[in-house]
Design a protein that fits this description.
The chain is mainly α and 70 residues long. The protein contains 4 helices and no strands. The longest helix has 12 residues, at 20-31. The chain is globular and about 45 Å long. The protein starts with 7 loop residues before the first helix and ends with a helix.
């Protein structure tokens, strides 16, 4: 869905939903966003947001060294 610019109703139909509203409600339950809002958010994001307080090994700095090595 995020790579298509087709109508949400068409995507819902391709996924087997008879009613696009049912698809939209299910999508919102799964993601917390409506399909249209999620598409806009993803497509408008130029770059991913940086992860704050991240160590060189990619773990959050709040993890202890033992947690990162586990």
């Amino acid at each position: 869905m995020l790579t298509s610019d087709g109508p949400i109703a068409e995507i819902a139909d391709q996924l087997g939903y008879a009613d696009p509203a049912h698809f939209s409600r299910a999508y919102r339950r799964w993601t917390g966003f409506s399909p249209r809002a999620h598409r806009r958010m993803i497509l408008s994001a130029a770059t991913p947001a940086p992860v704050p307080n991240q160590t060189a090994d990619g773990c959050p700095a709040s993890f202890s060294r033992e947690d990162r090595e586990a």
